[in-house]
Amino acid sequence: MGNNKNAKGKENQNKDENEQNKKKENEKLKDERIEKVGQVTLDENKEHHKLHLLTIIGEVEGHDNLSSNTKTTKYEHILPQLAAIEDSSEVDGVLILLNTMGGDVEAGLAIAEMIASLSKPTVSLVLGGSHSIGVPIAVSTDYSYIVPTGTMVIHPVRLSGMVIGVQQTFDYFKQIQNRITGFVCEHCIIPKNRLEELMMETGILTKDVGTVLVGRDAVEEGIICEVGGIRDAIAKLHDMVDAKNTDTK
To answer: Which of 119, 134, 177, 238 has a 20 to 30 Å separation from 19 between CA atoms?
Structure first.
């Protein structure tokens, strides 16, 4: 009898140790994932939803590698992850945190189009800023938030390097700008003519044309849905997941 009790106690102890080791390993993997690509799965909530967290930080890197001193978001990391999220039956929703200066137009639009086409509920939260090509990414989600001190810079398309001063070059600029404004206006409620007015404003930026929108200004202009923080964004995403699950039953 005593031997049975000892054996059972040892078995329970080994089970507890295995669970603790597994938990530590999962935490280690989670920390490594955050450090490498700024992504993590939020799955310890009372609703038992699995929410995937993506971060768009620094400069959105395109086909050219930026310097090692620059914080970047690499589209070759984000696009496959978004495809995996869409294909996964375990991910219930996606939360996107933005603090970006903008970057490559093609890469930024590619990320925005991928997010917009996800079947999972999506919510974005603009933190420090979501400037330039960060604007389409911010509005590509089903619902968007901006913190009170968050900023968004709206400006025309810029091109670095040599520019040939012919009409075709300016037509190409206009085409790129129309792609951006068209996408933004399809995914929020700002009218196109108003967005173009903000782009061409000359009295706000000291060395450039464009507009800086801070917090509530972005909401009042119809670009962002609501002023809020991480608590609001996560709560909204849980509500959207619950609503989707109810609709599919």
So the answer is: 238
Residues 6+ apart with CB under 8 A from 8: none
**Cα separation values, 36 from 44, 85, 134, Å:** 21, 18, 21
- Which residue type, as a one-letter code, is found at position 151? T
Query: Position of tokens 């699950």?
Result: 245
Q: Which helix (H) or strand (E) holds 37?
A: helix 2-37
The rounded distance, in Å, linking the Cα atoms of 106 and 103 is 9
Q: Where are the domains of the chain?
A: 39-248
pLDDT at residue 74, rounded to an integer: 84
So which residues are the catalytic ones? 132, 155
Pick the CATH number of 39-248 from 3.90.226.10, 3.40.50.10490, 2.60.120.600, 3.40.1440.10: 3.90.226.10
> With contact defined as beta carbons under 8 Å apart, do 82 and 114 qualify?
yes
What residues does 211 pair with on adjacent strands? 154
Cα distance between residue 208 and residue 202, in whole Å: 7
Looking at residue 65, the DSSP 8-state letter turns out to be P
Q: Using alpha carbons only, give the angle 146, 152, 156 rounded to the nearest 5 degrees.
A: 150
Give the model's confidence band at 49: pLDDT under 50 very low, under 70 low, under 90 confident, else very high. Answer: confident
Cβ contact 216:152 at 8 Å: no
0.90 exceeded by pTM: no
Distance of CA 3 to the CA centre of its chain: 57
